[in-house]
Amino acid sequence: MWIDSHCHLDSSAFDVDRDAVVAQSRAAGVAAIVNLPGHVDHFAQAKATRERYGCLTGYGVHPMWVAGPHSTSNREDIATVRAWVERENPELIGEIGLDFFIPDANQREQEWFFSEQLKIARDFDLAVSLHVRRSQDHILKHLRRIKVRGGFAHAFNGSAQQAAEFIKLGFCLGFGGTATFPQAQRIRALLHDVPLEHVVVETDAPDIPPSFLGTMGSTARNSPVYLPQIGHLLAQVRGIPAGGFAAATTATVHRVLALG
Known about the structure:
Number of helices: 9
CATH architecture: Alpha-Beta Barrel
CATH class: Alpha Beta
Number of domains: 1
Radius of gyration: 17 Å
Distance between the termini: 16 Å
Structural class: alpha/beta
Helix content: 40-55%
Largest sheet: 8 strands, parallel
Order of helices and strands: EHEHEHEHEHEHEHEHH
Strand content: 15-25%
């Protein structure tokens, strides 16, 4: 059985067939889905998704809602995040982090939101799902300053040295669609070399579609239905049987989220 450690099942991309997607995912061997909304306006839908499908759920403000062309967040949203976490008792905080790739990145505001949400994770002793894009060292700086229990570095694409620093701080590295492309040599090398107990699999659905859905950068809708296929391809990169890879990555999610 597999666990999708990073998904956006509450996305409007699944409004037409969400029930079918969940049913097909379960039939394919996906035991659980970690669902992560990115804006306070999405929290109610995420809660409904959790209640209907039993998703593992995080609450948090994604950096792309803090800065860039889609920015609609304000600092009062932090109080909203804290209130939802206190009331709903989620499994983790996320998706939060830093993104210095987007235009008008407004680094100062992103870092304020990130540090405040790390404080929420610390205060409630929750794991964190990290968005890390061209910001690895800055995120490490905040993680060293504000201690949290660990979590997942989603779609990790940093160096081996940076990976080792995240692991020291209790984080596992998420691999998904990008690592299924043979030309993604650096990410595949990292996937091959990272200790297995620090690897998790993810879809980021509806985003980051795998190689069997088209070329890299395709706009095809990704789905948790595809997680077992993605997992098989990642297991090949590791050079281990898919069943063992599924068992190991599932156990890692359980450990990180302190699931029974």
